[in-house]
């Protein structure tokens, strides 16, 4: 079974709860779910929509929907082209009576059914849920449970009012039900969303300090950190204050993290260079959106790959992780803290609007052991904070440890931290910092990519939430395989062995210039392999990849 439900409403009306209730209903019934929310940055009355993709097997994004919940006429008119033939519209009867002749023609041509209710109060969502539950013959107790959960924060009176309206509306309905009754197929599945998984993963991995200036689409990481009441946090006045406060926390030995998007990340650039020189570990959650400048701030694009790979000035190495699922968002957040602590460098958790705001059912959360790196509890009298070691990683101390005094300076320094412009010292310190990430994957015992359908001659190269839909495509097109990138930097040289004998590799990314393609091809010299065809699937229209976009590969 695959069902896509679109909830569409004017901005500012606060209808997100309807989508949340529908999501929870199907999670309660044991289905797999992912969602896609699209909304304009203009605050009032422009059209938003929330797609809920539901399946008993696997989930992916598609441009079409089976059901529309419409909360005003303009929202219905803008979204009706996405509704499939034989689809269903749930709406207030007032909307139905104001439809234009053009919309009525589309409804007739597509054999669309309109199920409406005469609504004269502010509870449109609850009445429409009654229509929905009746049409699909869903157990009403499930609806009532989910109404109670979503409205719990508003108090008992609100819960009781909504349940009463639902019950009264439902018992007065009488029309032909869908042939596809929605049954309970499994135990209830847990639902979460990308930024919440990032926050939860960091908290469970002993995050001690978080700082951010609210910036779409990273803002809700801060929201979840605050709601947890488990982490010291600062909502600072700008991103310069954000990164510097977090570096001070890291300097004391605290596990620290910041969150931002590209514009804010640009303001952090100078401090990130300082972190590399002073060898202070810090995690930056960088959630991409459509730029340049203010751009289209609430929409999707992955144009900050180059920026994440080269986040500041100087000659240095660092780590960039790219989670591709909700479960990885959780795990990689904790892993990023471990890597920042262990290697005493900057770690960028590269997200995007799609993954940050994607909700869905989640499987088992991978556990992660907290690793603090090489910390001296009893440093010697001649403690060298920047000691030249074979690994390039010098032992650190927590601030206040006896004999552990040192200065974290932006200047080049010797082993003790004293400023130095000595030529030989500069050479040794540069080599020390680069040595940290040598043989990184062998030391960590991990791979930075995952391969699906290994023997396929055509390989898609994808990352982030695009993997959900790409996985669906290769399920139905066995000549294609898929490599999901989970570490952008350092590069794992083993990927070359996966790709070198393929017939074609197709880079899939949401930007115009092919930043992922240029980076990986340049690092591995893939364009010099004569039998290897390199192609791409690029999209930069503000929206994520849908299954229809992948289907164009087989139509070429």
Secondary structure elements and pairings:
Layout: E1 2-10, H1 16-28, E2 32-38, E3 47-55, E4 65-70, H2 73-79, E5 83-92, H3 93-96, H4 101-109, E6 113-117, H5 124-135, H6 140-150, H7 156-171, E7 190-193, H8 194-204, E8 209-212, H9 219-228, E9 232-235, H10 239-252, E10 256-260, H11 262-267, H12 269-278, E11 282-288, H13 305-309, E12 319-321, H14 326-343, E13 346-352, H15 353-357, E14 359-362, H16 423-435, H17 440-444, E15 449-452, E16 458-463, H18 466-476, E17 480-485, E18 487-489, H19 494-499, E19 504-509, H20 515-524, E20 533-538, H21 547-555
Parallel strand pairs: 1-4, 4-5, 5-6, 8-9, 8-10, 10-11, 11-13, 12-13, 16-17, 16-19, 19-20
Antiparallel strand pairs: 1-3, 2-3, 7-14, 12-18, 15-17
Features:
556 residues; alpha/beta; Pyruvate-ferredoxin Oxidoreductase, domain 3; Rossmann fold; 4 domains; 7-stranded mixed sheet; 6-stranded mixed sheet
């Amino acid at each position: 079974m695959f069902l896509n439900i679109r909830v569409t409403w004017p901005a500012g009306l606060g209808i997100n709860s309807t989508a949340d209730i529908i999501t929870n209903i199907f999670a309660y019934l044991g289905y797999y779910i992912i969602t896609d929310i699209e909304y304009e940055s203009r605050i009032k009355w422009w059209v938003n929509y929330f797609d809920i993709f539901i399946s008993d097997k696997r989930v992916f994004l598609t441009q079409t929907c089976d059901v529309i919940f419409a909360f005003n006429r303009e929202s219905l008119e803008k979204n009706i082209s996405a509704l499939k033939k034989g689809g269903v519209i749930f709406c207030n009867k007032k909307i139905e009576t104001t439809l234009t002749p053009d919309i009525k023609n589309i409804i007739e041509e597509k054999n669309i059914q309109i199920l409406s209710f005469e609504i004269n109060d502010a509870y449109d969502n609850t009445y429409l849920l009654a229509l929905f539950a009746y049409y699909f013959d869903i157990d009403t107790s499930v609806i009532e449970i989910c109404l109670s959960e979503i409205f719990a924060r508003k108090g008992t009176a609100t819960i009781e009012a909504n349940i009463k309206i639902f019950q009264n509306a439902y018992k007065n309905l009488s029309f032909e039900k869908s042939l596809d009754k929605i049954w309970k197929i499994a135990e209830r599945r847990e639902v979460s969303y990308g930024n919440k998984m990032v926050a939860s993963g960091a908290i469970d991995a002993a995050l001690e300090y978080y700082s951010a200036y609210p910036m779409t689409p990273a803002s809700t990481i801060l929201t979840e950190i605050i709601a947890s009441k488990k982490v010291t946090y600062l909502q600072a006045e700008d991103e310069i204050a954000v990164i510097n406060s977090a570096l001070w926390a890291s300097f004391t030995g605290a596990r620290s993290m910041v969150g931002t998007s590209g514009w804010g990340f640009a303001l952090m650039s100078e401090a990130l260079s300082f972190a590399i020189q002073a060898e202070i570990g810090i995690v930056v959650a960088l959630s991409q959106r459509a730029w340049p400048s203010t751009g289209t701030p609430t929409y999707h694009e992955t144009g900050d790959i180059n920026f994440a790979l080269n986040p500041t000035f100087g000659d240095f190495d660092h780590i960039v992780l790219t989670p591709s699922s909700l479960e990885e968002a959780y795990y990689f957040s904790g892993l990023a803290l471990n890597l920042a602590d262990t290697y005493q460098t900057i770690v960028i958790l590269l997200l995007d609007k799609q993954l940050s705001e994607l909700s869905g059912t989640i499987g088992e959360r991978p556990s992660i052991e907290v690793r603090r790196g090489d910390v001296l509890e009893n440093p010697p009298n001649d403690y060298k904070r920047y000691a030249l070691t074979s690994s390039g990683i010098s032992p650190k101390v927590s601030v206040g440890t006896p004999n552990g005094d040192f200065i974290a300076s932006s200047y080049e320094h010797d082993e003790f931290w004293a400023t130095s412009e000595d030529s030989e010292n500069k050479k040794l310190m540069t080599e020390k910092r680069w040595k940290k990430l040598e043989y990184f994957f062998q030391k960590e015992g991990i791979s930075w990519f995952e391969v699906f359908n290994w023997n396929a001659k055509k390989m898609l190269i994808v990352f982030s939430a695009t993997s959900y839909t790409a996985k669906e495509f290769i399920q139905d097109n066995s000549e294609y395989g898929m490599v999901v990138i989970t570490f952008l930097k350092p590069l794992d040289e083993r990927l070359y062995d996966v790709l070198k004998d393929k017939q074609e590799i197709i880079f899939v990314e949401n930007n115009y210039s092919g930043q992922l393609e240029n980076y990986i091809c340049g690092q591995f010299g893939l364009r010099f392999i004569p039998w290897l065809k390199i192609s791409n699937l690029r999209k930069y229209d503000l929206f994520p990849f849908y299954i229809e976009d992948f289907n164009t590969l087989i139509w070429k």
